[in-house]
Specification:
By secondary structure, the protein is α/β, with parallel strands linked by helices. It folds into 3 domains: about 5-180, 3-Layer(aba) Sandwich (Rossmann fold), CATH 3.40.50.10770; about 185-250 and about 435-440, no CATH class; about 260-420, no CATH class. The protein has helices spanning about 25-30, 40-50, 55-65, 85-100, 115-130, 160-165, 180-200, 200-210, 220-230, 235-240, 260-270, 275-300, 305, 320-325, 330-340, 350-360, 365-385, 390-400, 405-415, 425, 430-440, and strands at about 5-10, 15, 20, 35-40, 70-75, 105-110, 135-140, 175-180, 310, 315-320. The radius of gyration is 34 Å and the shape is rod-shaped.
Length: about 450
Amino acid sequence: MTKYVLFSAIGGTDPISNFRDGSMLHICRVYKPESVYLYLSKEMCEFHDKDDRYRFCIHRLGELLGHKFDVHIIERRDLVDVHKFDLFYKEYRELIKEIREKHSDATVILNVSSGTPSMKGALQFIAAVSGDSIIPVQVSTPAKKINEHRENIKDYDVHFYWEYNKDNTKDFENRCSKSESVTLLAEVMKNVVVNHIDAYDYSAALAVAESIKNHIPSDVVCLLKAMKWRTQLDVLKMLKELNSLPYDLLPEKNNENYKIVEYLLWLQTKIHNEEYADFVRGITPILTSLLERALKVLCNIDAVKDYCEMRGINRNVPYWCLEKLNKNPEVLGALQARFKGNFIPDFLNTETMTVLLKHFSSHEIIEDIETLNKIEKKIRNEAAHTITIVTKERVINATEGYSPEDIFNLLVKVTKAIDIKIDNNTLKSYDNANRIIKNMLF
């Protein structure tokens, strides 16, 4: 059986008005919460001091129902600015957090019909961005419209109103309902999710989506998790997230190719978001991978396997190996010629691979590879020797006229030339995934 805890601001129609339960008392009658937290402003504290009307009616209701209510009074005797939304949102958020921690096994009900508009609005918002453990409940008036008559709450006989309360019968009308305004707010939050998706910020989109997961298809959260892993270039976790879903987001499945394609698409998002520092830092790894692949496809040279040895802490960095190079004088000779007999077997880099590509291949793409190698070297030197904001203009100046888009297009051109499929549909892969998610939201 579900346990409930009620948090309620107190308004002028509490505890009883027009010979019917006020909102707070009616929620107690319907849901029978184990604990009730009443939030009283300065004015409500004065009524509480006069006749203890709120606790009196709750305890009498408990006797009638055979149910024990544990009542807590939260007094704010200095509170007169009852119209300030920010004030209530911040305090209510902390109070409700404490209540949830204290009653971790219970569902918290928020009374969104009592108190001032700012109080009710703050509680609506808190409920909207919380999970299943918080329910906003509104209570309609018996006439289903604004009460035309209101008791004189200053000259109030709580005993009289309790005795003549028409809701004190077994067949009373249940006027409680879950607030639909949460759904409206969830619609607003959906648009926030969309804005994050359009910026390829899937971590932010996921955080917002999880706060309204009861109002969106469960697949949306799974897809956002998958796309989050994708932007982190963790394709294995992405595929694991998609394992039970009927969505195919990866345009390239070949084990040797998908890493290059996914890295290029990641670079594309950096250009879209004008995150040029990340784009610049990302050029060297992708160019290195492309040139390794180009040597295999265009020159039948597997540089890593045939002419390198692995070094580094994890032995995962390829270095040229003289012993292996000596077995192929033409490869070693090409490198020695480029460095005028002073070739040093350092780590496998884009410059040395470009030397071999020029020597062993006459493919037209070599010219673009040379251009990329020069661009990469200039950008690398710029990044290594300056601390500055990386703008599009700075990239153009550093590369003598190449924009990030130009560089990206050259990378794509080289990719196509070495037998890796990357068409327009592939380049729209992120946007296609975004479209799937957004269509599910609306």
